[in-house]
Amino acid sequence: MTDFREVSPPTLPKTLPNVGQFQSGPPIAPIARLMIYSPDDWETFIEEWVSAALSASYKSVARFTGSGDKGIDVAGFVDANGLNGVWDNFQCKHYAQPLSPTVAWPEIGKILWFSFNGHYTAPRAYYLVAPRGVGTKLNLLLGHAANLKAETKKVWAKNIAESITGTQSVDLTGAFAAYVDKFDFSIFKAISPRELIEQHRKTPYFFERFGGELPARPLPEKPPEAVQGHEQRYVEHLLAAYAEHKKEAIADIAALKKWKPLSDHLNRQRESFYHAEAFRVFLREKVDPGTFESLQDEIHDGVIDTAEGTFVDGFERVKAVTQASQTVPLDAHPLGSSAFVKDRHGICHQLANDDRLRWTQP
User: CA 19 to CA 289: how far, in whole Å?
Assistant: First the structure.
């Protein structure tokens, strides 16, 4: 007789999911996402990581594809000499389990053989990168260069000789054996997937690839008393709007002191501009390039019809446009939930700073 037990409905959590969880389910940890990549996706991710997270270390980065890559997947070049100069190799392996020495032997053999034959200089460092890392046995060998060399020579005939070129057996004899004997095996290393993720987290591509919430934003600085060069243009547009409203010339912000409502309005707009500028700078190294600019485009598209409407003066146009910015739907934009009211107002003035919005008619 088959045994069975009665089950009860699962206990519901005592907290409500956020909007993203309600639509897409619980978040998937970055390290779990790495496991489901295809081998090609994995190489793309490593190329992205090397290019972005390690960009300060390399003059250029290249990805090698196809059967003739000679043991190179992603290369970081320290100088302009490419494979004939100082470079590091990142060997991408996407397996269902941690890498074993059996997987590493042919790759080590390729580096030895092709550098010996002058196809490239030996890399400065050779990193095995895999979503499940390397197993204990391989990790111990990589941590002791002399043992790794000895074991490589020991297994050469069985595990390496037939796996280097596909067209010939490479015997460990003669000048090549002498080359291997003098080779610096300390270049062979492994990088853990958690280290990859933490380094990638500092790049602009992390949130697009793995999702999650942006870290807390720092408080923006208060605007200095004097108008700075980078805000000159939008302030000029505001002064023109105030002048049209009062029907008299207003040369600078000091002239606003006799109209407190206008002076207060300008102060609020400058605070909003600095708020949006701080948001832009905060995002610069955290999201994909162009993401903040696309938010500006969304605000522009949402307020331009209002800006082109008919108003008694430019001051009324400014107020109408900034008010309209508060109701622009941003739910579909990746930064929509992170934009405060001051960000929306400030973006209007960023657009005015670039002459994409104007408060007075030419």
Answer: 25
Q: How far, in Å, CA of 26 to CA of 16, rounded? A: 12
Two structure tokens written together for 357: 């919005």
Report residue 44: phi and psi, to 5°: -60, -45
CA-based angle 229:294:210, to the nearest 5?
Answer: 115
Q: Look at the chain and report how many structural domains it folds into.
A: 2
Cα–Cα nearest to 185, from 225, 125, 132, 238: 125
Pairing of strands 60-63, 74-77: antiparallel
Question: Among residues 300, 271, 296, which one has the least CA distance to residue 358?
Answer: 300
The answer to whether the predicted template modeling score (pTM) of the entire model surpasses 0.85 is no
Same domain, 197 and 237: no
The answer to the question of residue 224 being in a domain is no
Query: Strand, coil or helix: what is 93?
Result: coil
Degrees to nearest 5, angle at CA 41 with 38 and 44: 155
Identify the CA nearest to 288 among candidates 176, 167, 200, 207: 207
Residue-wise pLDDT for 197-250, tens only, equals 999 888 878 877 887 667 778 888 899 999 999 999 999 999 999 999 999 999
- Of 93, 98, 94, 92, the C-alpha closest to 132 is 98
Grouping H, G, I as helix, E, B as strand and the rest as coil, residue 134 is strand
**Within this chain, do residues 102 and 205 fall inside the same structural domain, yes or no?**
yes
Residues 336 and 239 in one domain: yes
Interaxial angle between packed helices 314-325 and 232-246, expressed in degrees from 0 to 180 and rounded to the nearest 10: 130
Measured in whole angstroms, the distance separating CA 169 from the mean position of its chain's CA atoms is 43
Shared-domain flag, residues 234 and 347:
yes
Phi and psi angles of residue 190, each rounded to the nearest 5 degrees, phi first = -130, 150
Q: Which residues of the chain have pLDDT under 50?
A: 1, 12-23
For CA atoms 45, 51, 55, 60, the dihedral sign is positive
Are 132 and 206 in the same domain? yes
Alpha carbons 234 and 348: distance in angstroms, whole number: 9
Give me the domain span that covers residue 234: 230-353
